[in-house]
Design brief:
By secondary structure, the chain is mainly alpha-helical. It has one domain. It contains one helix and two strands. It has a two-stranded antiparallel sheet. Strand 1 and strand 2 form a beta hairpin. The longest helix is centred in the middle third of the chain and has 69 residues. The radius of gyration is 34 Å and the shape is rod-shaped.
Length: 86
């Protein structure tokens, strides 16, 4: 089982099986590194989207808290007005 490779002049030359195996390993390493890079980019995008979502949730919670505070102030004012009217 001989492996072949093309040299710089595009001629086909036989290569040693251990050299062919090493070339395959290097090609696999390159593919794995590329896939890891893609995975990192996807994770970064996911984290950015999660950050945006958490910011939206924080804003919504803050808005609800403010609305509740205003509601309590109105109720307190009504109680004070009723107490003064008595």
């Amino acid at each position: 089982m001989n492996a072949f490779a093309r040299d710089m002049n595009q001629t086909v030359v036989p290569i040693n099986p251990s050299v062919a195996y090493e070339m395959e390993i290097r090609e696999r390493i390159v593919r794995v590194e590329e896939e890891l890079k893609n995975q990192r980019e996807l994770m970064k995008l996911g984290f950015e989207q999660m950050d945006k979502r958490l910011e939206q949730m924080d804003k919504r919670i803050d808005d609800q808290r403010e609305a509740m505070r205003l509601g309590f102030e109105q109720v307190d004012k009504r109680f004070e007005d009723q107490r003064e009217a008595m």
